[in-house]
């Protein structure tokens, strides 16, 4: 009788950090690196990832929920996350496919919980409901001074010939973004087994290498050459 193939354990990796730190770029680069190691992986984001969650994302980022307050927004994010976990994250992990998400539950805790003043008990209850045990195996927190982050965003926008617009969170004052940065650092400090903070003030290639070093050390099956 033929033995079943040895399938790698599926891993769940999330990227967190403030606005403009380069999460989307580094998610793409990690996706490519995992592909070179024959890892089946899907990319997703929060809020979003499924049709229902994307609808909630649009509603929130357009500022239509702002008048409801941070508590109501936390509930909306949890509703989006519950659908995201049930319809995309859990099924892919169950079949052995890795999942990389641009933001996840730590963003709700940082934005609505710590910065918006939502009670920890509500945040914890919503998190328990939405995650249903699907805690990330690794969370990469990209850290950058908000002033540098926004200068980079402005530079990229001008180079692309686009107009600066920004969603409702990007339009907050600089001091708000400084508090947000500290919130992510505090979350990482409180979860050292899961979170790794990496400076995003280095160039994209160096940052990619730093992230790959963390990922390959955390998951030894990736060490060695492609297809290892």
From TrEMBL:
Record Pfam families: Thymidylate_kin
Keyword Ion transport listed: no
SUPFAM superfamilies: P-loop containing nucleoside triphosphate hydrolases (SSF52540)
InterPro entries, A to Z: P-loop_NTPase, Thymidylate_kin-like_dom, Thymidylate_kin_CS, Thymidylate_kinase
Residues at which ATP binds: 17-24
Biological-process GO terms, alphabetical: dTDP biosynthetic process; dTTP biosynthetic process; dUDP biosynthetic process
Sorted UniProt keywords: ATP-binding, Kinase, Nucleotide biosynthesis, Nucleotide-binding, Transferase
Catalytic activity, as annotated: dTMP + ATP = dTDP + ADP
GO cellular component, one term: cytosol
Any GO MF annotation of the entry: dTMP kinase activity
EC number(s) stated in the UniProt entry for this protein: 2.7.4.9
Family: Belongs to the thymidylate kinase family.
Described function: Phosphorylation of dTMP to form dTDP in both de novo and salvage pathways of dTTP synthesis.
HAMAP family, A to Z: Thymidylate_kinase
Protein name: Thymidylate kinase
Species of the source: Devosia elaeis
